[in-house]
Amino acid sequence: MLPISKHVIAGGTAFLLCSTTTHAGEIWVTNEKDDTVSVISTETLEVIQTYETGERPRGITFSKDFSRVYICASDSDAVQVMDPNTGKILHDLPSGEDPEQFVLHPDDKHLYIANEDDAITTVVDVESRKVVAQIDVGVEPEGMAVSPDGMVAITTSETTNMAHWIDTTTQQLFANTLVDSRPRHAEFVKDGSEMWVSSEIGGTITVFDVATQTEKAKISFEVQGVHPDRVQPVGFEFTEGDTYAFVALGPSNHLAVVNAETYEVEDYILVGRRVWHMAFNADRSRLFTTNGVSGDVTVVDVASRKALKSIKVGRFPWGAAFRP
Amino acid sequence: MHRVIILTTALLCGQGATADVALDVGYLSVEAHRPPTLSNLDPVPANLGLAGAQTGLQDNLTTGKFLGHGYSLIEVQVSVGEDPLEPARDLLQSTSFILLDAPAETLAAIADLPEAQGAILFNTSAGELSLRDTECRANLLHSLPSHAMRTDALAQFFVQRRWNDLVMIFGSYAQDQAYAEAMRRSLKKFGMALSEEKSWAFDADMRRTASQEIPLFTQDLGDYDALIVADELHDFGRYVLYNTWQARPVVGSEGLSAVTWSPVIEQWGAAQLQSRFSDAHARDMATQDYAAWAAMRSLGEAVTRTNSADPDTLRSYILSDSFELAGFKGRPLTYRAWNGQLRQPIAIAHPRALVAQAPLEGFLHQTNELDSLGLDRPESQCEAFQ
């Protein structure tokens, strides 16, 4: 069932692209220390817009139909809802304190938000703009993911070093699994059969079998000429069909290319300094990484695994999201 | 009579608890006589160190509730003039895990108690090199960096900036002398030396203000690249800045300092620890708070990973290659297996900003760059850990 529905979605995207030929794809990047988002054209590879946001914008994601963009304004203690066509803030959502990352449930209605200072995950209904639930998790929650079927949400906690498994029906935890130090990012892959968590200080990615919540594999990284302590996996994204994972390795200034079948690292790509997160263009042929310290975005050609260009954005670019 | 306060006792059973493990942690602070300083601008908080242990306890409790692990903190204060060994013995009756805030010689005496054999004690207050060297104890770990780690950090900075011509003023207290000695050692280690040094000697009659004395006092130091001040009690050092005869930077205990922790550290997620701490204690987190936090979290991390409260199990895990503490310093913190010192980056900062973080780029090491700071394996004469 699932592969078929996925196929339909892919077809839908293609259709959308064909029908909007006048509208090039865009990568939206949050600039943590500028209180802005930079909008990059995936065609011209230039910044075409800069919009103001609340304080310290980090997590960013679009609604299913791309008519709204949600932005975690961490120091404003709000999730802002912006009209991406005008850059106008439509309203704020109640988010709990210090929202850092979030994930939009497949129902397009519920945002799962990590409240970093409060050890809480907040669930917000974006339509009624009300908090639906608050779930106690570990110290400094950050990474957020939700399974493709919407049944399971994940929060990772940086100081507790766990992935917390949330049953989205009851909004209760049903498992807590230890990972290596300082987990930062989580993703469900392979139709939700696997869940990956990156550990920044541990320097690893843990692959979980979702059905049993047990560890299936652990991926380590080794960048030539860089001390292992500085190889710190943070954000990661998958190519079409979840074949390869591109993993940001933070202060080592490299991306790793991981074969998602064998869990082997095949390549390292030099990008900007302190690489955080990333987003693909429409056909996933190019990857855009946010480089916090150098204040730019590196464009990577996925097929040749080469960096093509650096695009200057605001100060401390952090989150990235694509819209067609 | 010393005071004993049980701060928090909590055994929380969370979901998926595999076992109920409870760890009582003692916090023993031995009050020391503090000599008067020229300025009263920096009062010493009454809960210095203890507040860090409390924040570490909260972090451990939050994690523990998902695993069925409980933690508690037992605080004991020993007043000036009291014998610290008796309350230490009492505390060791109830727990084998103690965070110590005491002078170096008291730390060694407590570690030597028959009751302390097999315990895990943490030094959170004494930077003396001897405790990591000939005077080391197998049951005493150090979450506070040694003086040498801090002075090595500054020496790396001098090398990087090519500040080769250095002079020093040192105070008269034992802490100042220890810092000055560590600085001389570090300069030698990195191929430098002091061209001049003077002892701060205004003990008689301060006729004019310190700020008027300093230009005269520093006039005969000649020219130099930077002036090192060894004033660990912060008595006169603050008046040296901008008052020197030569317009040169002041480093050491004042000005540009190598510190374990500082409110200006906000990178590497540190802003979260800073705000968690200041929300709970209504003040900034200081070095000794950080050392106590790191000790508490080291125990918590070991309990989390081993699912045990057995001192031997925890000690061998803490000293193993598997242990790593995410300490908000940008890389994992581990313990040196040869003397129990917590390896950690050292911040080089002034009161308004972080300037650099040691080890600085280019200071290489065959196994771990962090071991370019403080006593490396071949240098340490500690044998208790073998």
Automatic annotation (TrEMBL), chain A:
Transmembrane segments: none annotated. InterPro entries: Host-pathogen_enzymatic-act (IPR051200), N2O_reductase_N (IPR011045), PQQ_b_propeller (IPR022456), WD40/YVTN_repeat-like_dom_sf (IPR015943), YNCE-like_beta-prop (IPR048433), YVTN_b-propeller_repeat (IPR011964). Keywords: Signal. Residues 22-319 form the YNCE-like beta-propeller domain. The keyword Aminoacyl-tRNA synthetase does not apply. It holds the Pfam family YNCE. Residues 1-24 form the signal peptide. PANTHER family: DIHYDRO-HEME D1 DEHYDROGENASE, PROTEIN NIRF. This is PQQ-dependent catabolism-associated beta-propeller protein. It comes from Litoreibacter ascidiaceicola.
TrEMBL record, chain B:
It comes from the Bacteria. This is ABC transporter, substrate binding protein, PQQ-dependent alcohol dehydrogenase system.
